[in-house]
Amino acid sequence: MKEVALVYATMSGNTEFAADFIEEGLLKKGVSVKKTDVLDADSDDILSYENIAIGVYTWGDGDVPDDALDFYEDMEETDLSGKQFLLFGTGDTAYADFCGAVDRFEEMINEQGGTVVIAPLKIEESPEGQEITDTVNHGAAFGDKIS
Ligand SMILES: Cc1cc2nc3c(=O)[nH]c(=O)nc-3n(C[C@H](O)[C@H](O)[C@H](O)COP(=O)(O)O)c2cc1C
Q1: Residue 43 structural domain
Q2: How far is the CA of 128 from the centre of ligand 1 (A)?
């Protein structure tokens, strides 16, 4: 059975809300999902999966938020070759670096040899209307790509 570790960072709930729709899309494809708030995450456990979905909000000036930093730094020290990633994030287009933390993760994953299999999904604050459908479809598309 296909399995995905889905980890998300959230402060005010937007990214957690989006993570629920990513999970919905994966479940539609029959994927088993282990969903974890990054604050409760054991990096070794998450990084033992071949397929990993990461959702993150952006803090500061395009920065990875503090609550996701330990996980980010653990990934930076891991050989990610052979692993497939889905990235999504919520942010605010009023900031110069919209969803910059998603880009920070993508750059690091590429450097560590991992593969981001579909273009990251960047959501304005909390997903609404069509964005909800897009988020479910993003999860489903990952479910189709992985083995
Ligand atoms: C101090 C502060 C800095 C932020 N910096 C950025 C930023 O650089 N880029 C961006 O896209 N969003 C930025 N945001 C917006 C948040 O990422 C956005 O509200 C996000 O949806 C919060 O997610 P959460 O509800 O999961 O915590 C910032 C918000 C705050 C309060």
Answers
A1: 3-145
A2: 17
